[in-house]
Amino acid sequence: MVLTPLVKFLGIAIAISTLTYFGILSLMIAFPVLQSYLFYLHRVTQTWFKDLNVPEQFGFLHNQVTPFFISTVDGERLHAWHILPLGLYRRHQDELLAQPSGLTGDMTSRLALQLLRDDPEARLVIYFHGTAGTLASGYRANCYRNLYSCAPDKIHVIAADYRGYGYSSGIPSEKGLLIDAISLVDWAMQIAGVPPSRIVIFGQSLGSAVAISLSHHFAFHAPPVSFAGMVLVASFSDVATLMATYRIGGIIPVLSPLAYFPRLLSFFNSFLASTWLSKDRIAQFVKLNEDDGAGRRKYHITLIHAEDDTVISFSHTEVLFWHAVSATSPLGKSCEELEREKLTLKTNLGAGGWSVEWRTERGVIREEIIKYGEHDKLMAYPTIGIAVLRAFRAADPTFGTLIR
Predict the structure, then answer these.
(1) Contact between 312 and 378 (Cβ < 8 Å)
(2) Is 228 exposed, middle or buried (CB count within 10 Å of its CB: 0-12, 13-18, 19+)?
(3) What angle do CA 36, 40, 41 make, to 5 degrees?
(4) Residue ranges of the alpha helices (H) in 196-331?
(5) Which of the listed CATH numbers 1.50.10.10, 3.40.50.1820, 3.40.190.10, 3.60.130.10 matches domain 42-245+275-395?
(6) CA–CA separation, 354 vs 377, rounded Å?
(7) Membrane-crossing residues (predicted)?
(8) Alpha helices (runs of H) in 171-277, residue ranges in sequence order
(9) pLDDT per residue as tens digits for the range 304-354
């Protein structure tokens, strides 16, 4: 049988594509640093031709945001923003306008920090963003405004670029991002003077893995540190599971072509430099709090995902919810058993989706699956702001009582 030129061309094209694909995977195994560039995409800033030290370019009022640097214990410098809630800014606008603008070398001299530090009723959201971009990319600026929307006089936001992102130094890694997160919390508690009971840890996409790792770290800290709550949006259960379906930008596959060859997929997964075992860490976090004999530990976890998310399937959030809930029982709980119980616990939100709350004497685990919002758009949706308010009220029911 004679092969036509077209068939020959297609055969050669497939062979070249296959060799190129496996060649790239081989390079990633040989040089793990390449995995960092591919997984974290920290060089894809998405804020080209804009100055991150001029937050007004991203829709903020003049001096509503203070850019500054935070130092980590391993010598990196993280570029961060402190975002004032709108109501508080309005009351102090004249004083804030009189201060220098842009990057500050002495954050302690700024009125914005004083307003946070000196108000015993102030609350703080520490925000961890997703992969690619900077702290100002995409919907992130809109999300910051959303986070304080339910209490615009009280909820401050701290956001920072991880090492290697934006103006921050270094190269990202799983260990490095945890150090970055710990550095932010240490700054918030020691410099800003905000106790953990007035802090909500917020993470989206990659940031949700960072948030879980951070809360897990502090739960095992001596003495343990408990935050007001943790809000996790568009999460993934672990990197190995994610890579089996993940496509960069929803288009370029990473390990998904190997999903039909489990042994080959498992082989390449064994070389992953970053694993982010969120499903295991969230289970350990819940179990530790549930097993606290003194009863002093409390926790509040909210998991939010959109059904139409094509970047990370909402099934990852369902897996996280299952692992977290199973950890509340000494004997655990099968996925099938939980699904049956969820049928009676679900609150139907109509076209908005549905939610489930699992309550114990020690804490609350809430899962909310909204119909629409994709991977990033939901960050500007009111569901997010309400989740943050709910977490603060769980720690202090009197907070925001004037908000109906």
Answers:
(1) no
(2) buried
(3) 100
(4) 206-219, 239-243, 262-269, 278-290, 315-326
(5) 3.40.50.1820
(6) 18
(7) 12-34
(8) 174-190, 206-219, 239-243, 262-269
(9) 999 999 999 999 999 999 999 999 999 999 999 999 999 999 999 999 999
pLDDT over threshold 90, residue 159: yes
Cβ burial, residue 101 (10 Å; 0-12/13-18/19+):
middle
Encoded amino acid at 351, one letter = A
Kindly state the tokens that stand for 9.
């061309």
Instruction: Tell me the pTM.
Output: 0.92
**Exposure letters 187-215 (e unless 16+ CB within 10 A, then b):** bbbeebebebebbbbbbbbbbbbbbbbbb
**For residue 126, what pLDDT is reported?**
98
The structural domains of the chain, with segments of one domain joined by +, span 42-245+275-395
For tokens 């917020």, the residue is 202
* Best CA proximity match to 133, nearest among 45, 40, 4, 71: 45
